[in-house]
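Shipment paperwork, digital attachment
Item: protein structure file
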Amino acid sequence: MSAETFVKGKTIELRKKHIGPSCKIFFSHDPIKIVQAKGQYMYDEKGGCYLDCINNVAHVGHCHPDVVKAGAQQMELLNTNSRFLHDNLVLYAQRLQATLPDKLSVCYFVNSGSEANDLALRLAWQYTGHKDIITLENAYHGHVSSLIDISPYKFHHLSDTEQNQSVHVAPSPDVYRGKYRADHPDPASAYADEVKDIIHGVQEKGGKIAAFIAESLQSCGGQVIPPTGYFQQVAQHVRQAGGVFIADEVQVGFGRVGTHFWAFQLQGEDFVPDIVTMGKPIGNGHPMSCVVTTREVAQSFTSSGMEYFNTFGGNPVSCAIGMAVLDVIEKEDLQGNALRVGRYLTGLLEEQKDKHPLVGDIRCRGLFAGVELVKDRLKLTPATAEAQEVIYRLKEQYILLSVDGPHRNVLKFKPPMCFTKEDADLLAGKLDHILTELEEALGMKLHDALSVENESNKRKLPTDENGHQHPGGLSHGGESSLGFAQQAKRISS
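Attachment content:
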């Protein structure tokens, strides 16, 4: 186990002194100090082993030896500005393009998902000559200024900032909680028509649509899976208005959905975006990302007359690491593993829904899964405090999970792709136990789930693991009011 430089308390003290206070950490009430990781496991300074169900960054597993070796070997040989000729750049671009539809053939390598999405907007603006952008409710696309403007997940938290008048927000295509639900005869068309109406409204005011941007599966928005056919219809409306379709694969690409390499392919083989952005898993933790687009869009960007270069994007080390990640996905059949284990996990989670009134909805594609907790299945009353309680109790059981969604009530699963059926069994078993105790404390019964909203929980919930405040709920400080066991067993690696 790696030795720590400071004791945990000193690390916390120095973080508070030197790191910006807006930089939140997981489990802020009792943060975990991680000193080592391997595969789907992370280790704290005391040797405690945590099952990682959060990290969609360590895509092929933490510290995968093949990826580490590829980076180290290339770093020993050369790493330099990407404006020099180097085979790694074109080799990796060729490998990456082979996973995509032929139309998407031109790559721009950058350093983060935020940088990729910012560049995608620049490409769209230049190609179309238009300015207006359509985004989705609860969307998150990055932290730079241009992306905060198109990320309701972020800008709805800003108290005094006026929304950019060139940004228009369409309803999230959520068939569980959204405007059009699973019982609608054609939710894909209904949600797409909402986008069409926005386009008409923009045009009536003299605006012109440059792009529609969406995560192929909404992650921060609550693990939302759009109805099949939605993207095709949206793309048709947007392109008729002279705009382009940007698919954000930063969190969901590289085989995570199991059946396909890219999540946008879930919509069907007849759907091809104009621009695709990718990041996070692309380098297994190494800071790299990419924008892939059509020859026409790329040529338009060139015709602006402004040279584009990126000092570090596509450097030899990054490209060596990127190729190693692709090699591991193929060699270890991690896309196939995501499909098999994802289906197994989905079955286990569906069993939890059958047993527990707190579980309102299960939505999964491969190793991208969401469990929405509600206090009433008819009213869909968000179980925000209960979701927080679940992730803190799982942490005590050495399992790392997080929550998201507009109501912070969706348990989200995006583990490394080496996640196993045994890991799924362990997770489901612990979740079952925690939900049982929660429901007993709240007086919830399964036969009441569809008609009775439970109001027994009035305790205050402190800031959640991402730093958000929520009214009502359960306390994570001191002794558990639910009487949960305080001793957690270590997971064997």
